[in-house]
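#lab-general

N.A. 3:47 PM
ok so I finally got the sequence cleaned up, no stray characters, all 144 residues accounted for. can someone with queue access submit it? mine expired

B.Y. 3:52 PM
send it over

N.A. 3:53 PM
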Amino acid sequence: MLPLLLHSHTHTLSRLHAHAQTHAHTRARTHAYKQRAHTCARVQVETPLERKAKMRARVEQLRHDRETARKAEADRLREEHFIQNCEPVRTLQSKKHSQAAAANNQLLVEHKQVQKQHERQSEPHTCHNLTQYLRHTVACAGAL
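B.Y. 4:20 PM
back already:
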């Protein structure tokens, strides 16, 4: 009888252990399912219609940007063409360019003149100091 009772008790423990494992596995699966459901609730799923609408809007934006750039380039080229073909405008631009070049040349000339004037002013001092030094040296040598 004891072996039968022991066997029955072992069998019951085994079933309890299996039940506990199954329950733990079920809880883990339930927790994972809840996590996925929570994650899915946070993530926006984009439907094919929404994706197409988004792509159409992007295409329209790119077309608009390209057309705006094309118009800006066309305006620039038209203005350049006008300036090249309009004699009064070309004359005025040429005159402004010549005046700017003349002003730059004048500044260079004035800068060179100021530089030469500084050199001339520094030369006499150098010569004067050298002359004084030589006189002093000769005087000292004559005293010997």
